[in-house]
Amino acid sequence: MIAETVCSAAAAAGLGIAAVTAYRKRFLAATRIAAYSLVPLGLVMTGVVDWLADTAFSPTAWAGFGVLGVAWLLFASSRTVERRRGGTRKERKEAKAGTRGEAVAPAASAPSLGAGSRQSTRPAAQPRAEASDDFSDIEAILKKHGI
After folding, report:
1. Residues 123, 125: Cα–Cα separation, whole Å
2. Cβ neighbour number for residue 125 with a 10 Å cutoff
3. Per residue in 119-134, pLDDT tens?
4. Residue 34 burial by Cβ neighbours in a 10 Å radius (0-12, 13-18, 19+)
5. Are the CB atoms for 31 and 1 separated by under 8 Å?
6. In this predicted structure, what is the pLDDT of residue 136?
7. In a 3-state reduction of DSSP, which class is residue 3?
8. What count of other Cβ atoms lies within 10 Å of the Cβ of residue 68?
9. What would the pLDDT profile of 19-56 be if each residue is shown by its tens digit?
């Protein structure tokens, strides 16, 4: 009964503040304030406040919340242990057996993460020659514009 009265008073006060805000030509803010102020009134009218009051004073409900908390702790701890060990049992067996596939792009002809090989046949002066060609093009464009 007290919770219903408090929720109704909060809704009335919120609607009053929304009216003052709308009077000041801030209609968007007034609409938001009105929406927030109607939530407690809606909760009272749907019976959620009564359900919450009954739940708050029920030992069975608190025991249920305790069981849910224990279940959540068990789930979280099992996930933590699983991450530290390196995955599920199936994934660990695959890792031990070495049957795990290499990460490869769908259209790649060779594994993209495989061991790299250096090509010593490529001359080192080739990139510089390409760079000088690029700069000569740039220089030609700049001369053309008188820069």
Report:
1. 6
2. 8
3. 555 555 555 555 566 7
4. middle
5. no
6. 84
7. helix
8. 10
9. 999 999 999 999 999 999 999 999 989 988 888 888 88
Cβ neighbours of residue 134 closer than 8 Å, sequence gap 6 or more:
none
Residue 54 tokens read as 């009954």
Output the CA angle 75-81-87, nearest 5 degrees. Answer: 100
Name the token pair of 107: 């259209």
> Which residues lie below 8 Å from residue 8, measured CB to CB, with a gap of 6+?
40, 41, 44
Tell me the two tokens of residue 94. 């695959």
For residue 59, which amino acid is it? P
CA dihedral 19, 25, 31, 36 (to 10 degrees): -60
Structure tokens, 66 = 């305790």
To 5 degrees, how large is the angle CA 10–CA 12–CA 15? 105
